[in-house]
């Protein structure tokens, strides 16, 4: 199909989704939120839709090789049940490897959903495969132009969403009312805490036409990060969860249930995908299964005393506690065994599509001058503590793998033992990064960390400081960092071939107007066997 046909396919029938607010879509009957697909295998794929009605409704899914459905080659029946917010998910098997299919759902009265397009994973010798990497899409901060730009492409085989697909905050809190883009409305108005809140927020996001189009055109594999639950989540709580918001396990259960209802994902927390003999893509869960509570610099130095001495002692003891977990023991074993099995099978690349940055970032000395001479006392204290932490060997983002150094060392060492060509795909920080990962003084792989779809990055907090200044300072303090962009929103195209990985960070012109124009692209490559980027 040519580009115009693809765009038409993705927009047909989506007019209702452009109506303002989730409430209208939630009150609608029938197919309310288009279609989506995910969890591709070589012979199967998961199909998703939502059909609202007074009662549970049995739908028929049809899969065909052509958009006119002249010959239906697969499908099945699935119920859009009220207890699952009228969503329906069906795994269709018996498909051919490495090919595109068209699909739709049909209601008992003959009503049809829009037509979606999906593809199975290749099997056996595979020369190339292209991923699109997204993360951190806060709807009120701006338009989902990154989704729109990607949806117009013809070279994407699979979309990877590495977390923060939506955000939990009430209206007026991240972004503030002044920062919010007019017309980018969310529901409910309050913070999402209960199951009904999470469901309605998904309905708001999935009503966005650019996101709906992306889902309709490409299969997606996705994993939550923290904001699908609440900020800085860990297995026992979260920064943005308090006693007035109920028991933490109940909130996690509600968030996970809504995620599994509204996303084209399997109802399992971690999984992997085999792309012929080219790549194994692992999708671990780094938030609420095994993660221990994040360290906080303020807590480390609480109580007064010699701050530098406290941080030095922490860096040499508690910080490197081998008992601290990011994944949990059972998930670690699954992932490490997976690395070994993948390389033993002859697979060329081991891709870990996970949520938080693995490369190390340290506060540069220059950061002292980034926040203005009239900064508040509490800001100055935090900057001073971060400077002392860096001198003690403590990175600044302790919510990332930098806060779990022993767990990271285990992962990278497992990749080295397996002789893996490791590529990590990451989101979370809202900025774009390229890291050479190492363990024990030896190369261990590369990290491709994507910029956000809309959420603000460094540029929002260090006004008056150029991207060049920030990146130069960060590269000076962080030896693993090979390149960064700390000012633009966008997404990454990752091209896997038998001997190279190419990363193309696409930066958008704007997110405050609804246009998919690009500002520019930065490209880097890595050669198989080197386990580091070729050039910056």
From TrEMBL:
Keyword Transcription regulation: no
Chain ranges of the Phospholipase D N-terminal domain: 33-120
Signal peptide: 1-25
CDD domains noted in UniProt: MPP_PhoD
The keyword Signal belongs to this UniProt entry's keyword annotation: yes
Gene3D superfamilies: PhoD-like phosphatase, Purple acid phosphatase-like, N-terminal
Keyword terms: Signal
Annotated PhoD-like phosphatase metallophosphatase domain residues: 131-505
UniProt cross-references to Pfam families, sorted A to Z: PhoD, PhoD_N
Segments forming a coiled coil: none
Alphabetized PANTHER family for the sequence: ALKALINE PHOSPHATASE FAMILY PROTEIN (AFU_ORTHOLOGUE AFUA_5G03860), PHOSPHATASE, PUTATIVE (AFU_ORTHOLOGUE AFUA_6G08710)-RELATED
Protein's recorded name: Alkaline phosphatase
Species lineage: Bacteria, Pseudomonadati, Pseudomonadota, Alphaproteobacteria, Sphingomonadales
């Amino acid at each position: 199909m040519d580009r115009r046909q693809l765009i038409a396919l993705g927009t047909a029938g989506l007019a209702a989704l452009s109506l303002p607010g989730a409430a209208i879509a939630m009150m609608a009957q029938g197919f309310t939120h288009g279609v989506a697909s995910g969890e591709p295998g070589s012979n199967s794929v998961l199909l998703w839709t939502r059909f609202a009605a007074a009662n549970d409704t049995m739908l028929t899914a049809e899969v065909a090789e052509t958009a006119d459905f002249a010959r239906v080659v697969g499908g099945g029946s699935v119920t859009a049940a009220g207890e699952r917010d009228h969503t329906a998910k069906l795994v269709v098997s018996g498909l051919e490897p490495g090919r595109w299919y068209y699909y739709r759902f049909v209601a008992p009265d003959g009503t049809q959903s829009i037509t979606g397009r999906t593809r199975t994973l290749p099997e056996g010798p595979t020369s190339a495969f292209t991923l699109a990497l997204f993360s951190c899409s806060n709807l009120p901060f701006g338009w989902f132009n990154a989704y729109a730009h990607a949806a117009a492409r013809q070279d994407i085989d699979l979309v990877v969403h590495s977390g923060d697909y939506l955000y939990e905050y009430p209206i007026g809190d991240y972004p503030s009312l002044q920062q919010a883009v007019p017309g980018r409305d969310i529901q409910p108005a309050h913070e999402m805490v209960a199951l009904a809140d999470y469901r309605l927020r998904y309905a708001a996001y999935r009503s966005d036409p650019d996101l709906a189009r992306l889902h309709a055109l490409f299969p997606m594999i996705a994993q939550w990060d923290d904001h699908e639950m609440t900020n800085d989540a860990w297995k026992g709580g979260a920064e943005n969860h308090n006693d007035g918001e109920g028991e933490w396990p109940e909130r996690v259960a509600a968030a996970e249930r809504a995620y599994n209802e509204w996303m084209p994902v399997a109802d399992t927390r971690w999984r992997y995908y085999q792309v012929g003999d080219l790549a194994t893509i692992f999708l671990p869960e780094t938030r609420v299964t095994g993660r221990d509570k994040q360290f906080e610099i303020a807590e480390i130095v609480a109580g007064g005393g010699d701050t530098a001495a406290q941080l030095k002692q922490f860096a040499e003891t508690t910080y490197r506690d081998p008992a601290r977990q990011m994944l949990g023991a059972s998930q670690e074993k699954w992932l490490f065994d997976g690395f070994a099995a993948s390389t033993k099978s002859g697979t060329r690349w081991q891709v870990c599509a996970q949520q938080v940055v693995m490369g190390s970032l340290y506060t540069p000395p220059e950061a002292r001058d980034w926040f203005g001479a009239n900064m508040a006392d509490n800001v100055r204290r935090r900057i001073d503590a971060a400077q002392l932490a860096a001198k003690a060997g403590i990175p600044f983002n302790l919510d990332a793998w930098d806060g779990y150094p022993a767990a990271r060392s285990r992962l990278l060492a497992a990749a080295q033992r397996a002789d893996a060509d490791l590529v990590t795909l990451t989101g979370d920080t809202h900025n774009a990064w390229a890291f050479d990962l190492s363990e024990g003084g030896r190369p261990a792989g590369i990290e491709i960390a994507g910029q956000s779809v809309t959420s603000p990055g460094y540029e929002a907090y260090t006004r008056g400081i150029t991207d060049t200044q920030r990146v130069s300072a960060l590269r000076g303090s962080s030896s693993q960092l090979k390149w960064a962009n700390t000012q633009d929103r966008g997404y990454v195209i990752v091209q896997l071939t038998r001997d190279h990985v190419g990363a193309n960070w696409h930066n958008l012109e704007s997110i405050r107007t609804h246009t998919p124009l690009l500002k520019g692209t930065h490209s880097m490559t890595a050669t198989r066997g080197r386990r580091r980027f070729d050039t910056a």
